[in-house]
Amino acid sequence: MFDTYANESRVTIELIEPHLHTTGRILEIGAGLCLTSLFLRQQGYNITALEPAMGGFDLFAQIKEAILIHFKTIDLPVLNKSAQQLNIATDGTFHLIFSNNVIEHIPQWPEAFDAMTTVMTADGKMLHACPNYSVPYEPHYGIPVFRHFQKISKRLFLRSDCDDGIWNSLNFITCHAIKQHCRKRGLSFQFERSLLYKALKRVKEDPLFASRHQGIVANIACFIMRTWLATLIKHIPPAFATPMIVEIHKRKQS
Fold first, then answer.
1. In CATH, what number does 1-130+171-193+243-254 get?
2. Cα separation of the two ends of the chain
3. What is the DSSP letter of 139?
């Protein structure tokens, strides 16, 4: 578990590095074991980690608590509540709010987006990376999934020996749903391109990541990266690619 989170933490740093020029407050949504937030806090960034309390006896909570105790001199502020509970009166405002592979696990994600928008400064931004379930692929298990037929997909593709805890937490969010939400709220948004290409490249180059996408997925990724299809994949519109990264602002950017 620790190795997986440490590996994902490096990916998260790469995700937000171009946006770390801010001197304002930063909020990580779904900080997990808090490795990313601890590192950034150690580097001098004014960051707060949000990670809902998960009970004192579960393995994840124990590891998280052990890490925070071990690095207690870093003095990282941790909010033990859900994103939906963010409130400007108690939490203040943030210039940068980000998450990596978290939004797909929030049951009422539109409410979470509304709460995050409330605590985002007028000139701030949100940056979220997560799967796009318009594409029939579930990256946590490395299996096909059809979001309109979730029960059938689970019965057909999820192995009986797999823990279905992650599956039951998924909201099967899509690029289109995020666009609709932002338009209704008057928010500007932009999706990053070439992410499918980067994901396939990571399957080929990152052993820990590849271990979660074995079999036919890994074979297809290696085949694509060796052919002209790699160039074609770079130009697939974000709506038809997974994962997705969306940058959201309160006002239109000039």
1. 3.40.50.150
2. 43
3. T
Strand partners, 96: 26, 125
Does residue 21 surpass a pLDDT of 50?
yes
For the whole prediction, is pTM greater than 0.90?
A: no
Kind of pairing between the strands at 137-138 and 26-29: unpaired
CA–CA distance, 92 with 87 (Å, rounded to integer): 7
Instruction: Please write the tens of the pLDDT for every residue from 73-117.
Output: 999 999 999 999 999 999 999 999 999 999 999 989 999 999 999
pLDDT tens profile 170-204: 999 999 999 999 999 999 999 987 666 666 666 66
Which is nearest to 25 in space by CA: 123, 100, 112, 110? 123
> Could you tell me the residue ranges of all domains in the chain?
1-130+171-193+243-254, 134-169, 194-236
Examine residue 243 and say whether the peptide bond preceding it is cis (omega within 30 degrees of 0): yes
Which of 2-6, 16-20, 182-186 has the lowest average pLDDT? 2-6
- Rounded distance, CA 81 to CA 86, Å? 8
Phi-psi bin for 16: left (phi > 0), alpha (psi -120 to 50), beta?
alpha
As a whole number of angstroms, the distance between CA 32 and CA 9 comes to: 10
The continuous run of DSSP H or E covering 169 comes out as helix 165-169
Residue 143 clears pLDDT 80, i.e. is over it: yes
Please choose, from the candidates 31, 47, 147, the residue with its C-alpha nearest in 3D space to the C-alpha of residue 94.
47
Residue partners of 250: CB distance under 8 A and separation at least 6: 117, 120, 122, 123, 124, 187, 188
